[in-house]
């Protein structure tokens, strides 16, 4: 019984840490940026993207972003999204390291879709 309670406590702690991390790394005002023309950059794989995505989003997987970032306009505003929010943080950092000034983490694509609907 103690091991079940301990496991439950660990799972709960991991979930809480994930949620706190997610909200700390998400940028505010994403819906306003989208209304102003920000591009949603979905960094999931092509197969993941095919299972569902935000209409009008651009798909460049995180694994190819270091080579394909040249396809993007550094003057535009980008909001990175993925399945859970971890890859979008990495993508945001990659683009900022390459001189992009207007990049924001949108977290999970499905969550962002709910915000903009």
Automatic annotation (TrEMBL):
Residues in Rhodanese domain copies: 34-114
Family matches, as Pfam families: Rhodanese (PF00581)
SUPFAM superfamilies noted in UniProt: Rhodanese/Cell cycle control phosphatase (SSF52821)
Transmembrane segments: none
Gene3D superfamilies noted in UniProt: Rhodanese-like domain
Entries under CDD domains matching the protein: RHOD (cd00158)
The protein's name in its UniProt record: Rhodanese-like domain-containing protein
Species for this entry: Chryseobacterium endalhagicum
InterPro entries: GlpE_sulfurtransferase (IPR050229), Rhodanese-like_dom (IPR001763), Rhodanese-like_dom_sf (IPR036873)
């Amino acid at each position: 019984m103690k091991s079940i309670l301990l496991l439950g406590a660990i799972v709960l702690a991991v979930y809480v840490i994930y949620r706190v991390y997610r909200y700390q790394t998400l940028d505010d005002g994403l819906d306003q940026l989208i209304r102003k023309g920000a591009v949603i950059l979905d960094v999931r794989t092509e197969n993941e993207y095919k299972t569902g995505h935000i209409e009008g989003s651009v798909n460049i997987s995180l694994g190819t972003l270091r080579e394909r970032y040249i396809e993007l306009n550094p003057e535009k505003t980008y909001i990175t999204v993925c399945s859970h929010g971890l890859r979008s943080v990495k993508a945001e950092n990659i683009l900022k390291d390459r001189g992009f000034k207007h990049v924001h983490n949108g977290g999970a694509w499905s969550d962002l879709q709910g915000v903009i609907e």
